[in-house]
Amino acid sequence: MKISHKGLYALEAMINLAKHYPGRPNKIHDIATSESIPEKFLEAILVDLKRARFVVSSRGAKGGYQLKRAPSRIFLGEIIRTIDGPLAPMGDAESLRSLVKRDKKHSGLYQVLLDVRNAAAGILDHTSLADLCHTRAKGHA
User: Fold this and answer.
1) Of 13, 37, 71, 96, which cross-links 129 as Cys (Cβ 3.0–4.6 Å)?
2) pLDDT, tens digit, 9 for 90 and up, residues 32-50
3) Reported pTM
4) Alpha helices in the chain (DSSP H)
């Protein structure tokens, strides 16, 4: 599994927003500065995260970005899939399953890759933003 710079930046931005949940909206400039993310790149990432309904934005002097859900209800795997696509080292899990069934000579190899993918997905799909930033908002979990 490979996570792109964009994927890492998305995770860092989401952790930043989780640390401020459920407070005031955060400005792009503040997030970019705090996380050392190029501001224009962060803008594009936040648009993708907004389209995927992880964040909401508000305009104006007090505007910015906020998490749409509690940090305990947003998992790393879903963020990574939104930005970078499947978690598998060779396509998605279904592609690996079909390789295991189709290529009997190398099915052991493909089964190991499928197991690696499933283990990584299991960790990422059960690790929330709250787990990483140690902020569990009362009443929002």
Assistant:
1) 71
2) 999 999 999 999 999 999 9
3) 0.81
4) 5-19, 28-35, 39-51, 76-84, 93-102, 107-124, 129-133
- H or E stretch covering 57: strand 55-58
Q: Which residues of 112-124 are buried (b: 16+ CB within 10 A; e: fewer)?
A: ebbeebeebbeeb
CB atoms within 10 A of CB 35: 15
Structure tokens at 13: 């931005």
**Which tokens hold the place of 41?**
């790149």
CA–CA dist 76, 15 (Å, integer): 10
Ordered by start, the domain boundaries in the chain are: 5-85+128-133
Q: Does domain 5-85+128-133 have CATH number 1.10.10.10?
A: yes
